[in-house]
Design goal:
Layout: H1 2-9, H2 23-35, H3 40-49, H4 56-74, E1 84-94, E2 97-106, E3 111-117, H5 122-133, E4 143-146, H6 151-161, E5 170-173, H7 179-192, H8 201-218, H9 230-240
Parallel strand pairs: 1-4, 4-5
Antiparallel strand pairs: 1-2, 2-3
Protein name: IS6 family transposase
Pfam family, one: DDE_Tnp_IS240
Keywords: DNA recombination, DNA-binding, Transposition
């Protein structure tokens, strides 16, 4: 009976059911878009050069479907982060308006988490801290380094009072210590620039989830996957969907 349950649990991934193109081709296009600063039309031309006639709107739909799925599936495979947090937010244009992308890295520059928010206040900061603390690769931090944004002390104080955050966690408002995360923003900005802004909040959130996921993979955050080993990275992403690379 146990063997029968084990066999039944290993089913082919249905994520690509009904697609006109193969899963390998779809994941290749999605990975390339999320790794390099190119537009959908650029990627359309690259695929056409390889004999694959795929509209840029189709690639857009692939990214919207599979980028957040990659981000969700890699979480259990990430290495444990250390106890030092560097938190900052950067600006992302969505439908002609600026929104705020909260991001956190540890003292080694490894991405911990990210969250897109329409507002930059204490409630948004608490949502981000809760999201980061709820991940399997994180734990209560020893130090949290932030900039001079007054929302952070308010959020940390309230979370400590509610027992959501370790009472001995130290909040440091020191701009130069946050250079690690501020430098890390540049990689993201380079990827976002070819998009010329996002057409909607949900579109931005899904795409940014894919950017963040691929950034973690390329930084070597995934166990047994080298940050410079692109072949192993492609194999890892394929295995997330039970697809042969």
């Amino acid at each position: 009976m146990a063997r029968r349950r084990r066999v039944a649990s290993v089913r082919p991934d249905q994520s690509f059911k009904g697609r006109q193109f193969t899963a390998e081709m779809i994941l290749w296009a999605v990975r390339w878009y999320l790794m390099f600063p190119i537009s959908y039309r650029d990627l359309e031309l690259m695929l056409a050069d390889r004999g694959m006639e795929i509209a840029h709107t189709t690639i857009f739909r692939w990214v919207q479907t599979y980028a957040p799925e990659i981000e969700k599936r890699i979480r259990l495979h990430l290495r444990q982060s250390n106890s030092s947090r560097r938190v900052d937010e950067t600006y992302v244009r969505v439908k002609g308006r600026w929104t705020y992308l909260y991001r956190a890295v540890d003292s080694r520059g490894q991405t911990i988490d990210f969250l897109l928010s329409a507002k930059r206040d204490a409630e948004a900061a608490k949502r981000f801290f809760r999201r980061a603390l709820g991940q399997p690769h994180t734990f209560n931090p020893r130090t949290i380094t932030v900039d001079k944004n007054p929302a952070y002390p308010c959020a940390v104080t309230e979370m400590k009072e509610d027992g959501e955050l370790w009472r001995r966690s130290q909040l440091r408002q020191c701009k130069y210590l946050n250079n690690i995360v501020e430098q890390d923003h540049r990689r993201l900005i380079c990827l976002v620039r070819p998009t010329l802004g996002f057409g909607g909040f949900h579109t931005a959130r899904r795409t940014l989830a894919g950017y963040g996921a691929m950034a973690m993979i390329r930084k070597g955050r995934v166990r047994k996957v080298g940050g410079r080993d692109t072949r192993t990275q492609a194999t890892f992403v394929a295995k997330l969907f039970q697809v042969a690379a």
